[in-house]
Amino acid sequence: MLENQENIYIIPIFIPYMVFNQENIFHIQNKEDNSKTKAITKQKVKKIIDTYLENQKEDVYKEVVFWGGNFTKLDKKLQEELLKLVYDYIEKKQINSIAVTASPEDINKDLLKELKKYKVKTIELDVQSTNNYILKKSGINHTFEHIKKASKLIKWHGFKLGYKMLVGLPESTRLDELNTAKELVKFKPKTIKIFPVLVLKNTNLEKEYEEGRYEPITINQAVEICKELVYLFNRKKINILKIGLQSTQIVNSLNNVIAGPYHEVFEQLVLDSVWYDSIVDKIKKFNVKVKEVEIKVNPLDVNSVIGYNMENAKKLKDVYEVDIKVQPDEGIKIGKSEIEILKTYTDFKDEEKISK
């Protein structure tokens, strides 16, 4: 139930993670692995863009998105080379805009002027948390003051502001993460991404995990807190771009996941849970005990209503003794539904009597 999704053709350019602070929990301890993070070149980026443009001939809004690691952590010369490359496509009207990721401590007026010159439209801040204690505990360089200053500068210079936050950082609680979300919405960002923390091989966090100093949250815990964040961001009309890692590219770039709430369809699990709560809430508002209902939703929401491996349908049957029939209807907006009673518990009992 992600609302306000924009219709943009995304051309993704993956930037491997580069963490230079040795105290950071995501710092890669193996120097050989760390050297691989610099494997992004102008030639590779050009090839990716050309491939995507060949596959999309329609006249739609096209945006090159530098994602994954922070664009602002790249070598300054490489940053400019990549921006110039994409800007050439913009001048030829083959691409409309650029989006980049950034660390809050890197944002300053000179950087923003440079990004503006090359038609960057969106800057996504890698904030992780707004709690200074948790940021320090995780070895993250910036503070909430950096986040506030960077957010205001980005908006003042006319960029679209986006955020990436983490769930499950060391010593972070559900309340801490809700407070982070509440602080972030005050700056009225356009987009948000939510990622549960994973324990990755060769990182400082793996060492903490092996020594018993860090316990990752479970998938169920991650789903529940992310669901609460979805409710909050949807109420504030903030576009949720992603929940959890759907791609193995980031994971593979840092070797394998050792522990943590990783699931290949994690976002689906969160949306399933949101839909389950919505359906139960509507069923409870009926004045009769419902046995069977028809749920009309946009075709894009059908799988989420039924649930991954039909879990929602099974749970409704087991917990509430309700059977569901899901009817796709393109006339219904994404994230909305219409529920109609097909059979009440009384109807069902009467049918049983007749059959006997």
Give a quick precis of the structure.
This protein is 42% helix and 21% strand. The chain contains 14 helices and twelve strands.
Name the average pLDDT.
88
CATH H-level homologous superfamily name of the largest domain:
Aldolase class I
Main β sheet profile? 7 strands, parallel
> How much of the sequence is in beta strands?
15-25%
Count of helical regions:
14
What is the overall silhouette?
globular
Helix-strand makeup class: alpha/beta
Name given to the CATH architecture of the largest domain: Alpha-Beta Barrel
Strand segment tally: 12
Terminus-to-terminus distance: 43 Å
CATH structural fold name of the largest domain: TIM Barrel
* Helicity range: 40-55%
What radius of gyration results from the CA coordinates?
Answer: 23 Å
Strand line-up of the largest beta sheet: 1-2-3-4-5-6-8
Uncertain runs with pLDDT below 50, 5 residues or more?
33-37
3D structure, described in words:
This protein has 356 residues and is α/β, with parallel strands linked by helices. It has two domains: 9-264, Aldolase class I (TIM Barrel, Alpha-Beta Barrel), CATH 3.20.20.70; 274-355, Ribonuclease E, catalytic domain (Hypothetical Protein Ychn, Chain: A, 3-Layer(aba) Sandwich), CATH 3.40.1260.20. It has helices at residues 31-35, 42-55, 76-91, 109-117, 132-137, 144-156, 174-185, 204-210, 219-235, 249-253, 266-284, 302-306, 311-320, 345-355, and strands at 9-15, 62-68, 97-102, 120-128, 160-167, 191-196, 199-200, 239-243, 257-259, 290-297, 323-328, 337-344. The protein has a seven-stranded parallel beta sheet. Strand 3, helix 4 and strand 4 form a beta-alpha-beta unit. Helix 7 (174-185) runs parallel beside helix 9 and helix 9 (219-235) packs across helix 11 (266-284). It is globular. The two termini are 43 Å apart. The model is unreliable at 33-37 (pLDDT under 50).
